[in-house]
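Technical note accompanying the year-one report. For the benefit of new consortium partners, we illustrate the data format agreed upon in the data management plan: each record pairs a sequence with a structure-token string. No post-processing was applied to the example shown here.
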Amino acid sequence: MATYRSDAAGERFEPYDRPEGAALVQEFALALSDDAVNADIFVLGKLPPRSTLLGFSVDLPILDSGTATLTTSIGDATNAAKFFTSNTATFHNAATRVSSLLPINTVTSTTSKGTIAGSLPVVYTDASDLRLTVTANANTAVSSGTIKGFYLYTMRPAFQQPVL
């Protein structure tokens, strides 16, 4: 099991200086290597303390180009499957988009399998992250490519209580 970080998660994260409540967009990109896929964690982006995650969109290349199957989940630092879980065929020989901004329970691909699991927005008191976890059997043949996308969040002042 290895952990990989996108360009947005690999550096010290300083949130944009915007008025509280304004929606912020953070883009990310993470190139895959041929060995990066068994019980691996891909940290897509960071969420600062006192932030609210509004939505996300993740474009995935073909993750399994062989005969193996794999499962994926999208979540945060406390729950790897908080927002999305897939079945074993979702990413087999098909590029896929997982987005909370599409109609409910929609994943776009040629094999359209998987559902958005969690409801948004999610309020964070402490810092967290947006992450993709991929688990495959030992015979998977990973394709190269880039995981890319974006997420939307807002910030609230330190003195304001979270809205649940």
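Partners are asked to follow this layout when depositing records. The CA atoms of residues 62 and 94 lie 5 Å apart.
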